[in-house]
Every structure is written in C-alpha cells, then in structure tokens.
Amino acid sequence: MQRYGNQSRESGVVAYDIDAGQIIVQFLNGERYLYTEDSAGAANIATMQELARAGHGLSSFISQHVHDRYARKIRSRRL
User: Fold this and answer.
1) Taking Cα atoms as reference points, which of 61, 57, 47 lies closest to residue 8?
2) Which of 23, 33, 49, 54 sits in a 20 to 30 Å window from 69, CA-based?
3) Within 10 Å of residue 29's Cβ, how many Cβ atoms?
C-alpha cells in the first residue's frame, strides 16, 4: 500500500492501493475497504484515485459521495 500524502494533516485516510477499476483505502483505525467501479461507480473510482495520488480530499470525498458503497471490507490475517 502507498502512504497517503495527507496534506491537510487531518485526514482519516492513511494508505491506499490503486489497481485498474478499483482502490483499497486504509483508514486511521486500521480498517481497509475495497471500492470498485461496480460498487461505487466508475467516475467515483477515477476521482478517488486522483485524490489519493494528490494526497488531499480523499476522506472528504468518501464521506460525501460514496459512503458505504464499498465492495467489501478487507480483513487482515493476524497470527
């Protein structure tokens, strides 16, 4: 995962991973969510990818536009 730039220093996003048609977002609490074109819409995914790369506005965009339209929550494996 890529560390999120967090230019505002107030974002709830800490990391992301971009692939074709999707983005995984990790939040401060450690939870990770997969958003896809099917779940959130192609235009929203494109915007989220741009915001992630820019390091600004991703958390706000998620809360204002895609809310809980994620494909799934990614559960980490703990040993």
Assistant:
1) 57
2) 54
3) 8
